[in-house]
């Protein structure tokens, strides 16, 4: 092995050892802050530990100053069932603040606000769109002071979801519905827009009928335009009016298109009525069979009871 290769191997080993030391130090910081947070909240066991982080999709934000961790903030998604004053019990999937702790010696120094703002920037969320797991009075006053959040409905699962969450969700739903309506309005063909399939008729068939009627209207309109242009030319030559003739042609073509659509609708209605009559007939036959079975069961029960009453 050459000297350059030995140097490269030693450098890689040093980097790996340094990464391992950093990882161990980070694990010790997280474990220590988790234990201190549990003590401050009066919990029997810490809710932030390496085992919990490795088996979940939670994320931890640390505030470190001169190789000393002074604050911890753990967040993660949760599926919750919550209720509001204006809405019944609903299911939501918000980002949740699961653990928030700042060392006692450095509280009220801006560390908590810096840690919380860093989390909001990293997760790209608003404070009102977050659920808070068993928030302490200090955390509630912190949210009220810096973000004006104070209205909430107590939940059975001890999570706090502020009223602004529901208003924001309603606004997002309205915006999405407006976008959907605008997309549908631009994507729907003009001839089939607002076409409703009658009973017994599929949407594709109804669309075909609408397209055929539209084509009929276009052809009739073109023919009427040609006839009108011919009559106008004749009027220019002869000098006589032709307004009544144009109106009669327009009424005739429109009536023909409407009559074709009405005929198709009547045909499908008759087909639907026949299907309903067949269904009612089958239901009546089934009811008769059930009645006959009930009668046979009653006769069998009477025969068995009579046989039991007879003396041996």
Automatic annotation (TrEMBL):
E.C. number: 2.3.1.108
Catalytic reaction equation(s): L-lysyl-[alpha-tubulin] + acetyl-CoA = N(6)-acetyl-L-lysyl-[alpha-tubulin] + CoA + H(+)
Residue ranges with Polar residues bias: 221-262
CC per GO annotation: microtubule
Keyword Phosphoprotein among UniProt keywords: no
Segments of this protein annotated with the region Disordered: 173-263, 276-312
HAMAP family per UniProt: mec17 (MF_03130)
Family: Belongs to the acetyltransferase ATAT1 family.
Name used for this protein in its record: Alpha-tubulin N-acetyltransferase
Organism, as annotated: Perkinsus olseni (Perkinsus atlanticus)
């Amino acid at each position: 092995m050459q000297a350059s290769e030995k140097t490269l191997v030693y450098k890689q080993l040093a980097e790996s050892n340094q990464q391992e030391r950093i990882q161990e130090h980070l694990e010790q910081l997280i474990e220590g802050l988790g234990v201190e947070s549990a003590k401050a909240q009066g919990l029997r066991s810490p809710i932030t530990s390496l085992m919990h982080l490795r088996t979940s999709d939670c994320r931890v934000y640390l505030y470190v100053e001169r190789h000393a961790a002074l604050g911890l903030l753990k967040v993660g998604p949760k599926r919750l069932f919550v209720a509001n004053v204006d809405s019944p019990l609903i299911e939501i999937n918000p980002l949740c603040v699961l653990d928030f702790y700042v060392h006692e010696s450095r509280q009220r120094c801006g560390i908590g606000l810096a840690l919380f703002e860093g989390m909001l920037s990293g997760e790209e969320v608003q404070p009102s769109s977050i659920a808070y797991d068993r928030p302490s009075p200090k955390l509630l006053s912190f949210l009220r002071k810096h973000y004006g959040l104070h209205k909430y409905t107590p939940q059975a699962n001890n999570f706090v979801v502020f009223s602004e969450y529901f208003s924001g969700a309603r606004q997002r739903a309205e915006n999405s519905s407006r976008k959907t309506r605008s997309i549908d309005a631009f994507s729907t063909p003009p001839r089939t827009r607002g076409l409703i399939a009658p009973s017994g008729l599929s949407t594709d068939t109804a669309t075909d009928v609408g397209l055929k009627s539209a084509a009929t209207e276009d052809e009739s309109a073109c023919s009427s335009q040609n006839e009108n242009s011919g009559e106008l030319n004749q009027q220019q030559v002869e000098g006589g009016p032709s307004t009544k003739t144009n109106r009669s042609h327009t009424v005739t073509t429109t009536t023909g298109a409407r009559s074709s659509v009405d005929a198709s609708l009547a045909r499908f209605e008759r087909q639907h009525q026949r299907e309903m009559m067949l269904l009612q007939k089958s239901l009546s036959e089934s009811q008769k069979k059930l009645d006959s079975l009930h009668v046979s069961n009653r006769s069998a029960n009477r025969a068995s009871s009579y046989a039991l009453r007879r003396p041996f």
